[in-house]
């Protein structure tokens, strides 16, 4: 385990999509939770079951050395990864990414940053995606202007994708944008 300061330094140097070579360290419950990966950074890596194939036989086994991409990193001292090798990736990854993380391709190469208060640009982007998905013609800038928060603590009440309809507690961080 590393100190919080060391974790912030490590996380501050990570970029979405950055390729890291790792060794599968543990597959605790195949088909249930995912795999733990040693990526040599002093913190562990983890691949969620949602990114892995449904066929457990296609999962990398303990000791497998392969490439992974940085998928997410937040305040937990763990780097969330996705397999680079399509053999270890869910079969419908393209469809999955369009549903779950439509901004992934634009995130690639961007620094992984703290999930602090949502910026107006992030809120606009979320609202654009939501409106497009729902087939509405409202522009995000109109929505943001009509519902502009007076402080970051009210942002969660504006967009269920950010705060599940609940205001953020003072000092709380919003969940990662997916």
From TrEMBL:
It comes from the Bacteria. Residues 17-49 form the S1 motif domain. Residues 146-155 have a biased composition (Low complexity). Residues 132-178 are annotated as: Disordered. PROSITE patterns: S1 (PS50126). This is S1 motif domain-containing protein. It comes from Streptomyces ehimensis.
